[in-house]
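Entry 12.
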Amino acid sequence: MSRKNYLFTSESVSEGHPDKVSDCISDAIVDLFLAAEPEARVAVETLTTTNRVVLAGEVRGPASIDADIMEAAARRVVKKIGYEQDGFHWDNMSVEIHVHGQSADIAMGVDSKDNKDEGAGDQGIMFGYATNETDVYMPAPLHYSHLILKSLADARHGGVTEIGPDSKSQVTLKYEDGVPVRATSVVVSTQHGQDVTQERIREIVLEHIENSLPSGWMCPDDELYINPTGNFVIGGPDGDAGLTGRKIIVDTYGGAAPHGGGAFSGKDPTKVDRSAAYASRYLAKNVVAAGLADRCTIQLAYAIGVSHPLSLYVDFHNTGKVDPARLEKALFEMMDLSPRGIREHLNLNRPIYERTAAYGHFGRTPEADGGFSWEKLDLVENLKGHF
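Predicted 3D structure (tokens):
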């Protein structure tokens, strides 16, 4: 029997966190290639450290996207995030590019030929999840962790100069009868200027916490931790090295659902680590929005070079209102879950990925240019009609 009364915690990190700087740069490179060639192949990792950015990986796309253009993209991203510090500055940081052509062995197994659809770029399992505990169908602890940091970032970009780009949040919620009812503790650490007092930081941060949580959800004062170390002047890649793909739980469901292990950022949508995770979220969200369950986890599995998924599994967590086996069959009928089918259904071959790299890939608003297309609810009526 699943528990009904418990505490659950999730964390988020800002766009200025070293790992997120890396994710943003890697996804900016993906967008560069897809803007020039929608069928380009990209797998680029980024390392950030004190005044240095290193890109490495494999690509197949137009030769016009050269090392100089990739370097310019990295500098643009770092400038946009807001790093102009002695230890990490967009203008004078070193940028190394170690990007080469895609492996011919991988291309042979993945490319479509002889009327055969392309295969998956790798083996793996991908999970999607949705819950009706928030209006964006996301787990509440992660949702509010993201909101706090996004609010702080918006204030910083809007002119609040006392705080820096690097920040982290953590929200613990109390669940009663399976429903989140309030925060029991909140942790926020934010980089700040050398001469800014901790009292001022607390004043700034507290407003964004209170505005992000629902009315009446604020935790007790003695469980509110703002910059608990007492100082956070040195931050970003100058304080810690960053790597693409190290915040996969922040990117997805905050630990409330399984994760197959593959990161998203830096990968073009032929990689099922990314596209099939988006597809499984899309399906799970539509299932919950259609009222077929209060919570839904969907697993997809693929083999390298094989176009069709090896399995599709649905788990309602004891909240389902229909037969999950019937739903599995219906989902296969509603959506082509081959790598190409996913990309075409969600229109993924476009430069829409840099914006996904911070504050979560899910629970976002679908955008007019196709960004966050996997958050659409256009299967709801079809699903209702099946049951």
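Annotation: The first strand starts at residue 6 and ends at 13. The CA atoms of residues 131 and 137 lie 5 Å apart.
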